[in-house]
Amino acid sequence: GVGALNERPVSAAGLIFLIRDLARLFSGVTIYRYLSGTCDFGEPSALWWPGKRIFPASLNDWAWLDGVALAIAALLVAALAHRIWNLRRAGRSGYLSRDEQHEEARRPDAFLLIGFGLALLPFYWGVGHMALQPGYERYALWMVAPGALIAARGYLALLESARQKPQAHFKYAVAGAGLAASAVLLLSFFVQYFQTFSQDGGRAHFTFRTARDEPKLLALREVFAWQKQVLAHKSVVNNQADNRLWIVTADWWNYQPLRYLTLKNPNVHVVPQDRVSLRMERFRQQNQANGQIKAQRPESTTRFNNSEYETALRSGQVWFVGFAQSPASALFLRHLHKRGLRFEKRVRHDNGGKPLMLMVHILPVSQKRDYRKSMN
Question: In 3-state terms, the chain is what percent helix, strand and coil (to 5)?
């Protein structure tokens, strides 16, 4: 649960980490680390353009980015707080315009700033700073709207303060700094997100890595084309049972997309690997014990029949789709070896040429040849 994110929700170090992680959330670092896999603290490269360094590699811990983000945040909050104080002081002296008197009466900035600070207290007490870490940042999405509004109001306060200076260059300096900061944020999003995915497919979890076309959809299309080749080569009898296709998937991230993509095809059965592995083992044990197979109630929403699956498995109508470098895929291949089943496999790569999707065809039991590896 959420409460298990932090065993010590309240501590001085945790409060410091909370402030640091807030800056990372609004600078985009948290999202980049989770989705595209860039901005990984400790990675050997600093801010980069594909194939080139912008800053020296000595800045590879990204601590400078935390410092910049915290400095900007502190400046905006201080400017907003200073404006609130000036309005309150001027209101007591009677030097406010009608619009400023109306704003002072409502005090929206004060309520916004204080309310956001008060909202952080139960959040920090309940889950600590770990709820702002990559992969858990969904619990902190409520901070985005008030945080962005505080930043906008703080920048407006800076502009108003610069406008009151006798030197005109202060106003232009603040406006130029705001435009530059906005441009840097947009450029960092382009480089750390779009450019990363287009160049190497991403560096984060397998499910976020991609290619020019959706890898899971390409894997499914390749399985269908592969099945047609197998049926044509072996001259399988054209009836409904022989045309059925069973796809075993490893990882939840493959099961749901493939199940969705095959909803309109009644001859395709997508089943999760954990259900199949358990049932294959039960089938083998029951078959050795009494030679009979009893259909058991499925443990998932997928309709599963032991005897139908085993028949398809022995006749070469079962395919496997998973991440090429996933432990779950390696586990399924070991299970096939353990059962003495032969198979062919193919691999799809991401934009960076790294193995991404693994497709395996379990050969018919009667086929007298060893498995072979077909790499695409």
Answer: 60, 10, 30
